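Subject: two folds for Thursday's group meeting

Dear M.,

Sorry for the delay on this. The cluster queue was jammed most of the week, so I only got both jobs back this morning. I'm pasting them in the order they finished. Each block is the input sequence followed by the predicted structure tokens. Could you check whether the formatting survives your parser before we put anything on slides? The first protein is the one we discussed after the seminar.
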Amino acid sequence: MKYLYLHGLGQNADSWNQVTRAAEELDNSVCVDLAKMVKGKKVTYSTLYSTFSEMCDSENEGITLCGLSLGGVLALNYAIDHPQKVKALVLIAAQYKMPVRLLKLQNALFRFMPQSMFQQTGFEKYDFIRLCNTMMELDFSDSLNQVSCPVLVICGEKDKANKKASIELAHSLKYSQFKEIPETGHEVNLESPEKLASLLQEFYNSI
């Protein structure tokens, strides 16, 4: 089994390092760098998802996808489109219907931020803006029944922007459970890596 970890927008593949080091499946874990996947291409959600799908399709065995925020959206999208390929799914602070108002607010803030604040992510400033713009119409509400694998939905206690959607998502998926990580915000993999790793290990051992 291959375990693929997908970071959020504003993070990079290294954002998972503390989590994967604490997990028993380290040898089978791959922390995907989303920016490198679309390097040299026009950064849109469809381009990113297409490239990510090709990578997953190339795996000869079943995969477990663990994604945070943007990474969670990609993981959910792929599990809907390829239920036979995904053996387990972990969705952290993931939305299944894009919060358009929040995305517009984020983009407004991005426009005033200096380019230097985006460099460590591998994306350019306007990659962020274009990516958010092309995600606004995403809505998986009517497709959640396509997901057939066990699902663990996680959200930080302090992540007010995503908690409601995470609980709704867990209730809407067939074989899912919801876990909240106390005293933690949106970036669970950075704020509470050991607690997250413990939840992941418990989930992986149960499937």
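Second protein, same layout:
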Amino acid sequence: MKTEIRPARLSEAAELSAMMRRTFLAANGHCSTPENVAAFVAQAYTPERQAQEIRDPDTLTLIVEQDGVWAGFAQLRWGTLPPTDVGLQPTVELARIYLDEAFHGRGIAAVLVSHLLAAARLRGSRSVWLTVWQESSQAIRFWRKHGFQIVGRSIFHVGDDPKEDWVMAQVLPEG
């Protein structure tokens, strides 16, 4: 099987938006009321917003394909203000990373994380941070396995429902 990781193209904004909606709902659709989840998805995952993010020089949106089929996506954001718990600067936010369920368990996520960390180093970041829902034990285990440690807390809003998140960070090796 051939895995390819590449930057998203502007012409793919609608397809990316659909994948973002699908993967968010599969992973987190149960996290709040249907109304709050629908409000969040409608605000966060529009083709217009994805086009804007693809054009943003401080956001790297990647698509991962396996044998020519979209398996998932990820985003690094250099333009976000890190939580005060993230000490080592400059830093970058690993804002999104999702795989379609059919691609779970194939090692693709590990390859994608490695690619993201390399991209962060190439752009001069000394650390990477992310937030993860405190109730997502599988995701927390995944990030710990990949060298991230809990450094603080934050709030993530799904609609008008505040969710307790962990802030996790990793110091990147120099050179």
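Two things I noticed about the second structure. The radius of gyration is 15 Å. Residues 3-171 form a domain with the Aminopeptidase fold (CATH 3.40.630.30).

Cheers,
T.
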